[in-house]
Amino acid sequence: MSSHVLTDWRPEDAEFWRRSGRRVASRNLWISIPCLLLAFAVWMVWSVVVAKLPLVGFDYTTNQLFWLAALPGLSGATFRIFYSFMVPIFGGRLWTTLTTASLLVPALGIGFAVQSPETPYWVFVALALLCGLGGGNFASSMANISFFYPKSQKGNALALNAGLGNLGVSVVQFVVPLVITLGVFGTIGGEPQTAGEGTRLFVQNAGFVWVPFLIVASLAAWFGMDDIAAARASFAEQSVIFKRKHNWAMCWLYTGTFGSFIGYSAGFPLLMKTQFPEVDALAFAFLGPLVGAVSRSLTGWISDRWGGGRVTFFVFVGMIVAVYGVLQFLPLGDSAGNFWGFFACFMALFFLTGVGNASTFQMIPAIMRKDMDRLMPQADAATKQRQSDKESAAIIGFTSAIAAYGAFFIPKSYGTSIAMTGGPEAALWAFMIFYATCVALTWALYTRKGGHLHDVEHKARTSAAPLAPAE
Predict the structure, then answer these.
(1) pLDDT band, very low/low/confident/very high, at 465 (cuts 50, 70, 90)
(2) C-alpha span between 295 and 431 (Å, rounded)
(3) How far apart are the C-alpha atoms of 238 and 395, rounded to whole Å?
(4) What percent of the chain has pLDDT over 90?
(5) Helix residue ranges, H only, 196-259
(6) What CATH number did the domain enclosing 322 receive?
(7) Where are the alpha helices (H) located in 45-103, listed in sequence order?
(8) Per the record's keyword annotation, is Cell membrane included, yes or no (predicted)?
(9) Average pLDDT value for residue range 82-100
């Protein structure tokens, strides 16, 4: 059997964890993170590229450009549904390697396609859909890392993987506007395109810049990551999650957190440009995803400490307040609005989505561990733990797939609201109503006295010792 297959993996055994488990888990986590960051960068690259295409000779309508920006969200969410179940079938090492290497196709494709204004529109449509491969990677990455850590550190480990991976959204919105102004690949990268007023742009660098990093990350995954033998499961074994009510409840809640994060990330530049046209939107756009990604990676310990259900409840309350604040600072009628008030409220929203992304994913293993007592009353503790881990991993992947449709629906909601009412207010009111349903659902199912997590979280709080961070 390969030396990369772990046949003895007992993260809940303190001695095993101290002796070798922590080191192995950390190595897999810190290879997974840059792979996921690159996946998010490729997934969201069109949010920047579409704004530059008209400048270099592509005569596309606004609607055509909108679809190029939206299609990666649709395909990425759909890929996630399938990717959710792949790690237990193929193993985390092989799957991470293949999915990271697959991103070379859209990255190289964009680099070549944008160099000629004669490139057919359908080619860009195909490349936009292929960029969704990057969105799919999140589901399998999170499922994979969930197997490596003990329950006391699982929330923090998942928060680090997801939060630092989510930085890819901010990185692409910061890096691409810089590299397209520079001939960083010399003659190998192709000739520059001439934009207005004689400005030279290397739009192909928006794709090419990721290629060397993708190659290195793919090799690191193959030579440095491991598979856990006990984590293997067929699709039929994993599909039991579709019978679990908590799977569907967490799909709803995670749509409220991650769906908001990725949707706001995709729509933030356009919303700023339409509501405050005097502001250079791209100069500020990357800050929102940056705040959301950092808050996710740094706040996982809060949910491990206080309980994901309680943190999630207050996150949604805060998001309602923040959206209401955004509404107060938008231009309306004769009022020009207040950009900095609008911007501050959106930064609060991004921060809260990050905290909520960590807390909802902390809830899932806790929910399934408790549910195993009801579902498998005759099984021994080890069997319950294995089944809980498998179902938790599948639910984490599947909920991330459903939530990823926010990358399409939030920007589309802005557009529809503006088209029908002249402003984005109707969309924002709809988001507030949705967050209110998330508050109600979290309380009714999980945090009220008698709720599924009430006793677990209160018991954990009264007996908790300070947790060591995931390495």
Answers:
(1) very low
(2) 21
(3) 9
(4) 36
(5) 205-208, 211-224, 235-238, 245-254
(6) 1.20.1250.20
(7) 46-52, 62-83, 87-90, 92-102
(8) yes
(9) 89
